[in-house]
Amino acid sequence: MHRNFEPKIIKFNRTMIGQKSFKILVTCALAILPFLVFSQETEENKESKDKFNATEMILQHIGDSHGWHFFGEGDNSYTIPLPVILFTDNGSITFMSSEFHHDTEGKHVVEKNGMGFVNYHETIYQLDKGALALEFDEKGDVLNAAKPWDFSITKNVAAMFLTVILMLSFFFSLTRHHKKNTKSPKGFNNVLETLVLFVRDDIARPQIGEKQYMKFMPFLLTVFFFIWITNVLGLLPGAANVTGNIAVTVSLGLFTMVLIFVNGNKDFWKHVFWMPGIPTFVKPILAIVEIMGLIIKPVALMIRLFANITAGHIIILSLLGLIFILEHAGVAGISVPFALFITVLELLVAFLQAFIFTILSALFIGMAVKEHEHH
Amino acid sequence: MELLHVGVAALGAGLAVLGAGIGVGKIGGSAMDAIARQPEASGKIQTSMIIAAALVEGVALFGVVAALLGVLTVPN
């Protein structure tokens, strides 16, 4: 069979244009179109809507919330309600976040067991006895309400559950394959196995050493895939910004810190507190620096991940919010391609931050468990 | 007063970005020199370059986080 590899030539009004340059021409023509759009604004419209507050929109998108909000405002919003679980002095209270009726200004009071709860900027307050509404002092602090222990399933928690379900399903299918046959897996399982081997051969083995890397492989694999999957899921529209939440990254950094402390051997602690091979009067100063380093290294891990992901989300949201700040539909012609470019960059950053977190954790753990030759 | 608060925070973020730009630029430059000298090692050099760039960006983002804290805690 002879396949025709010649480029298709489009006949257009008896002139012949090659297919590639025709595509370029059409793309340019369509790209200019948005600038010809003039948004129609009647006088009543301008007065009834509030000015677009970009900061509020951005903070709402990168922050946590008690219901999973997709789109819409106020009563017409499409939100999945999530359970609100509170531990107060009178016991635990559970209700769905839909009882707040999309109110985040602290106005709607939910009555349960004689206690009133309000949602002020996604923090739940328990009103003191007899109070009917939140009162604030001049600085903006709440006067007549306390914060109960909030163990709700918020948007970030639900997103983390989704990630956990995804990870469990991926890896259980991979282990099921390996239980049944010894050949290499096919399809997606093959990708997963390649990544697992990548973590083992390029991250764990070089940093932790041949003798002890297997002990830490579960942790490194979990951290790597968890961070990568949550970062990528956070880029979808309507998704939760999990690793951009400082609480999540603090926990991840804490795990690494605990692993370092628990697995540090005698040589490691000796090097921290009383570094050998240095004149004695320098040793106390070095001990202080080393102790600070013990804390700062996991803190740096956590801030690096948090800031990278949050900064990426803020850039994308700002670019798209620019359309609403300038109130002209034509800005979309510039904003959306830029935002697309930044989103692609964020995909790279998602993988890179997972990789960096894992390799630095492996490096710190490797330094903690390294067997030194004695001088 | 709020303008000064926010403006100085934004200026701080800009300075952090300046540091990041210089740092990552130097890393990229030396990586390119190394690849030019020894093209077979380009895979390893590329990996190390990405790791070093991510670390430098981490430091710059400390500055951005500090600036964000400055902007978001403006007393109204």
Topology:
The complex is a heterodimer of chains A (375) and B (76).
Chain A: E1 9-12, E2 15-18, H1 19-32, H2 43-48, H3 54-62, E3 67-71, E4 78-81, E5 83-88, E6 91-96, E7 110-112, E8 115-120, E9 123-127, E10 145-146, E11 149-150, H4 155-180, H5 188-208, H6 213-233, H7 246-263, H8 266-273, H9 283-326, H10 332-369
Antiparallel strand pairs in A: 1-2, 3-4, 5-6, 5-11, 7-8, 8-9, 9-10
Chain B: H1 2-37, H2 42-72
Helix pairs in contact in B: 1-2
Instruction: Count every helix of chain B, treating DSSP H or I runs of 4 or more residues as helices.
Output: 2
Q: What number is the mean pLDDT of chain A? A: 84
Name the assembly state: heterodimer
Strand content of chain A: 5-15%
| Highest CATH level, the class of chain B | Mainly Alpha
Radius of gyration of chain A: 28 Å
User: How would you characterize the largest beta sheet of chain A?
Assistant: 4 strands, antiparallel
Q: How many beta-strand segments of chain B?
A: 0
Task: Describe this structure as you would to a colleague.
The complex is a heterodimer of chains A (375) and B (76). A four-stranded antiparallel sheet of chain A has the order 7-8-9-10, with no helix packed on it. In chain A, helix 7 packs parallel to helix 10. Chain A is globular, with a radius of gyration of 28 Å. Chain A is built from ten helices and eleven strands. About 2% of the residues of chain A have low confidence. In chain A, 55% of the residues lie in helices and 13% in strands. Chain A is an alpha+beta fold and 375 residues long. Chain A folds into two domains: 101 residues, no CATH class; 214 residues, no CATH class. In chain A, 23% of the residues are buried. With 76 residues, chain B is an all-alpha fold. Chain B has one domain: Up-down Bundle (F1FO ATP Synthase), CATH 1.20.20. Chain B is built from two helices and no strands. In chain B, helix 1 packs antiparallel against helix 2. Chain B is elongated, with a radius of gyration of 17 Å. The termini of chain B are close together. Chains A and B meet through helix 9 and helix 10 of A and helix 2 of B.
